[in-house]
Amino acid sequence: MKTKKTIVITGGTTGIGFACAEYLLEEGYEVIITGRTKENLDAALSKLGNGVTGFLSDTSKLSEINQLVNSIEKKFNRIDGLFINAGIFKAASFENTSEEIFDETMDVNFKGAFFTIQKFIPIMNNPSSIVLNSSVVVFKAFADTSIYTATKAAIESIAKVLNLELAPKGIRVNVISPGVTESPIQQKSGMSDDAIKNMLEHFSNTSPIGRIVNPKDIAPILEFLVSDKSLVLRNEKIIVDGGTTM
Ligand SMILES: NC(=O)c1ccc[n+]([C@@H]2O[C@H](COP(=O)([O-])OP(=O)(O)OC[C@H]3O[C@@H](n4cnc5c(N)ncnc54)[C@H](OP(=O)(O)O)[C@@H]3O)[C@@H](O)[C@H]2O)c1
Fold it and tell me: Would the CB of 221 count as within 6 Å of ligand 1?
């Protein structure tokens, strides 16, 4: 019987996805990461070293998801875990959310996530695990996040349905809900450096753990959810926020 599990992490080149890839490799998993920027993918692969495979694949494009699944099937045959992690955040008030921001955020965070899951199902082992990277924004309001919040609520909302429909294939679906986590996502959000600094300081000062969540805090939670330790969990949501939203 195969003991080394193969896990795919979408958006594994930086931030949370990268920290999870690093941790799973240390724990002896076979890890596959994706990203859409070649420079970031190359940098991640060289930092991660042996045991990792990377694919350039834009999750918002169905043709690229299909290509990704075909390439992974050729090389690995089947996978044991899928971390739906690729995501973007563009800060904009509700009144200033343009159609472009709406479409881009929906295409990556919800449509891309939806079809990535759908296309991977045929190559998922029985049993296997899908983990959705959502956010605390789904249950705690943050200004300037309306479309981002909607995409995270949308992907979380299908977890129950998937758990019903995919149960006969031995596929389980659970959710990680990170609080504000220090990662490159903030720099790409359109927020000013000062606004980012204030936000990170605010969450450090008001958190029971006295600091901001680090991507490395999320990695062991993902490992638990893709391992056989979580075989009976269904539609579980693990909030990883240092207690800021309690
Ligand atoms: N940081 C937080 O505070 C926080 C809190 C809650 C939830 N999250 C969620 O955590 C996930 C990871 O975010 P992060 O904070 O680690 O940010 P990050 O460092 O910006 O990582 C995002 C990853 O997704 C990839 N990605 C973005 N668009 C993609 C696309 N169209 N196709 C393929 N890959 C794409 C990026 O690759 P490229 O560089 O190539 O674009 C990168 O690898 C996101 O879903 C985010 O919503 C983050």
Answer: no
Q: Are 136 and 149 in contact (CB under 8 A)?
A: no
How far is it, in rounded angstroms, from Cα 151 to Cα 171? 23
Q: Residue 52 maps to which CATH number?
A: 3.40.50.720
The model's pTM: 0.98
Q: Taking each helix axis from N to C terminus, what angle separates 113-120 and 62-76, rounded to the nearest 10 degrees?
A: 30
The answer to whether residue 23 is catalytic is no
CB of 145 shorter than 6 A to ligand 1: no
**Residue 204 lies inside a defined structural domain of this protein:** no
Ligand 1 touching residue 185 (CB < 6 A): yes
Q: What is the number of structural domains in the chain?
A: 1
Segment 133-143, tens digit of pLDDT:
999 999 999 99
- Dihedral pair phi/psi, residue 131, rounded to 5°: -120, 130
Reported as a single tens digit per residue, the pLDDT across 114-139 is 999 999 999 999 999 999 999 999 99
Supply the pLDDT for residue 81. 98
* Test site for ligand 1: of 63, 65, 88, most ligand atoms within 8 A of the Cβ: 88
Q: Is residue 194 in a domain? A: no
Q: Which domain holds residue 30?
A: 6-185+214-240
> Residue range 34-46: average pLDDT?
98
